[in-house]
Amino acid sequence: MPDERNHEAMSDRQQSGITRRHFVEMVGAAAAACGAARAMAASPAQPAQPPKDASGKVIPGFEPSNTKPGAAKGWQPFSDRKIRVGIAGYGLCQFGAAWGFQNHPNVEVVAVTDLIPDRRAGLAKACRCEKTYPSCEEMIKDDKIEAVFIATDAPSHARLAVAALEHGKHVASAVPAVFGSLEDAARLFEAVKKSGLKYMMFETSYGHADCYTWSQQYKAGQLGKLIYSEGEYYHYFGSPLGGYNPKTKNVDINGWRKGLPPQWYPTHSNGYYTGVTGGSFTEVSCLGMPSIVPHLRADGNDYKNPFGSEIALFRTSEGGMSRMAVCWDLPSAGGEQGRIYGQKKPKGSANISRPPLPPGLNEGTHGGGSYLMCDFVDSILRNRKPWVDVAQALNMTVAGIVAHQSALKDGELMKIPQYAM
Fold first, then answer.
1. What is the 3-state secondary structure (H, E, C) of the chain?
2. What pLDDT, in 10s, does the model give residues 104-124?
3. pLDDT by residue (tens digit) across 28-47?
4. Which residue, 159, 219, 272, 303, could crosslink 231 as a Cys pair with Cβ 3.0–4.6 Å?
5. Domain 21-204 class?
6. What is the model's pTM?
């Protein structure tokens, strides 16, 4: 497997700045065994036709592929308990079914919801679930549900997460944790602390083979502090990509993605520091360039955002530097990737193999989604801290919010709020 490469080869790639790209499959689907003694008939977790953008191309991160041999090698069941999960959001990317909750042996998907009726029906079918609700607000009132996955439009993530926590549900959320609001960040942080429940943001860079390898080497002390790191999320939006539009109550090109400030969606890049070290960004200077793409001009979107690309230079919590780029208007670039440079050249051994997945699951959406989903489930079963807890989720997300503020002030150096549990 790619994550089992030798340490010296990985070190050479770190120093040269070369990294593999992670545009990979939806959760694999096939009839697969879900326990040691019995098999579960699994319907496809990925849609028959992968979601496409306005140009007709498959949206990056959703390319279909088959289950990799050996993905379940070494997996051992921990418990026979099934967590009762509700899933909110199918949307443009059919995201609610993309993480494999419905194929995990310790999960029962007991309810689903989407604001659009036909998408709600599609999500129910994909998750093999009969119970549906017209909204997430209604679904979280169901006392049978223990945990929810919020895969709705980004502006609603924080509001719905707080409401679910207040109704006694563990919460997994798609990225970003909050949408451009420091006030929402404070509310979410307090709601998690007050509830004592699990909250996890599903930032897929944590599950990428290279990022996971570096995190294990870092924990083993093989890298020292990171002097410099880079992360990049390049996704060309030459034409608007659809998003939920509260005005039309449908998914259309005038939805929430139109003109989205790049650094409001920063976690795919920022995860290449936070996901390695568990640290944070303390201050930022960010620059943006006015875009020639019409809907990425200040007069072409509701955010009054003039930038299609924003490049941030962060100071890290261990004193290093990190360049994190989010770009919507680079027609020649695409991908989620990163590089790291530590004080040491890694030597010695570290367990760099990603954890085995339950039978029937593959890496999942964006090259690591299933690892996030499985960790969330395991954190509930074992009553432990989830991999990407609320502090890390907000340290990644809020850094981008402040970065956009800096870009609007022509790169002014700005302090970033810090979160720690």
1. CHHHCCHHHHHHHHHHCCCCCCCCCCCCCCCEECCCCCEECCCCCCCCCCCECCCCCECCCCCCCCCCCCCCCCCCCCCCCCEEEEEECCCCCCHHHCCCHHHCCCEEEEEEECCCHHHHHHHHHHCCCCCEECCHHHHCCCCCCCEEEECCCHHHHHHHHHHHHHCCCEEEECCCCCCCCHHHHHHHHHHHHHHCCCEEECCHHHHCHHHHHHHHHHHCCCCCCEEEEEEEEECCCCCCCCEEECCCCEEECCCCCCCCCHHHCCHHHHHHHHHHHCCCEEEEEEEEEECCCHHHCHHHCCCCCCEEEEEEEEEECCCCEEEEEEECCCCCCCEEEEEEEECCCCCCCCCCCCCCCCCCCCCCHHHCHHHHHHHHHHHHHHCCCCCCCHHHHHHHHHHHHHHHHHHHCCCCCEECCCCCC
2. 999 999 999 999 999 999 999
3. 332 233 333 233 333 334 44
4. 272
5. alpha beta
6. 0.86
